[in-house]
Amino acid sequence: GIRRWVEIESQTADRDGVNRVMTAAAAEWTAAGAHVERVPGRDGFGDHLVVSSAWGGDGPGILVLCHLDTVHPVDTLQKNPWRREAGRIYGPGIQDMKGGNFVALEAMRQIMRAGAETPLPVTFLFTPDEEIGTPATRDLIEQEALMNKYVIVPEPSFNGNFCAIGRFAIARFNLETRGVPSHAGAYLKEGRSAIAMMARKIPEIEAMTTEDCTFSVGVIHAGQWVNCVSSSCFAEVLSMAKTDEDLEAGITAMLGLSQSANDVEFIVTRGVTRPVWKPGQPQDMALYDIAKGIAGRVGFDLPHAALGGGSDGNFTGALGIPTIDSTGLRGSGLHTLEEHIQEDSLIERARFHAGMFLELA
Q: Is the distance from CB of 2 to CB of 100 less than 8 angstroms?
């Protein structure tokens, strides 16, 4: 079942690919007897699905947050094809997070097949844009979360068995330099290179990194012809902040870098931001204690940590709704060509999610 989803490539910007995997997920749920609502995407992104079980009444229940977009460009399957080797299963997006989504679905499907009833209604929300900060569906996530009692996010298990009870803030920034064009061979001195300015600013930005607030430039676009002095250059920065104070200080520092020098403008604008989900909040720890007990009965330990990689759990945790994140599959290599899961975590994590659905009340 997971293979079907993994082999439908669904990089966030590929709306058609995202919609194809949404169609596959909708078919799985419809066959299981769940109610499926498909809502057209907006702002150029794919659709999303709101799926609800038939059990547990109509009151506040459990929201399972699942994204079906990945970071992997189309044709990544050629480089990291589906394969099973020595207890590992490989494929783009299998760990982050199609595998975790599928085992949570399978847990609910087996509960429904058995005719068992969950104490609370269970709603699955499948989104198309998590990998770029959830710009189009944050409001929907928060709306759904506010109507529920608990939130489960089957993102990949961290560093073995760790789940997330708290996440650091993630802020994105867009950089632009505007220079003066010229012919690079005949009139080099008349030009002012946007690329050169960007190249000087990148180490300055990354040197701002501390243990509590990090800065990383991950995307650069510039130039079309080597014989032209580039008049424009664009880059993107990702920042992680452990506290609200760190976040605000980082935002102030980044926006303060805008300047004009030697006829070249350097412009910083703020992009999507995920809020701090403060670790150790009483409502989250109470949910964690229940989850840890279920994990123990399934047969594995479930330590917790506050994590640096953002997720949609940032939004629900920051709202104060009891949230547990990174309940998905064990594995390694997420966001790389070595992305894989540990095969023995499939049944383990399916049973764990079944226990959560059956015991949370």
A: no
DSSP code string of 313-357? HHHHHHTT--EEE--S--EE-TTSTT-EEETTHHHHHHHHHHHHH
> How does DSSP assign 306-324, residue by residue?
EESS--THHHHHHTT--EE
pLDDT tens for the chain, 361 residues long, are 999 999 999 999 999 999 999 999 999 999 999 999 999 999 999 999 999 987 777 889 999 999 999 999 999 999 999 999 999 999 999 999 999 999 999 999 999 999 999 999 999 999 999 999 999 999 999 999 999 999 999 999 998 899 999 999 999 999 999 999 999 999 999 999 999 999 999 999 999 999 999 999 999 999 999 999 999 999 999 999 999 999 999 999 999 999 999 999 999 999 999 999 999 999 999 999 999 999 999 999 999 999 988 999 999 999 999 999 999 999 999 999 999 999 999 999 999 999 999 999 9
Q: What angle do CA 240, 245, 247 make, to 5 degrees?
A: 30
Half-sphere exposure of 295 (CA within 13 A, CB side): 20
Task: Give me the amino acid identity at 274.
Answer: R
For tokens 């079906």, what's the residue? 68
Burial of 176 (0-12, 13-18, 19+ CB in 10 A): middle
Query: What are the phi and psi torsion angles at 48 (to 5°)?
Result: -130, 160
Query: How many C-alpha atoms does 37 have within 13 Å on its Cβ side?
Result: 8
Give me 216's structure tokens: 């990383």
The overall pTM is greater than 0.70: yes
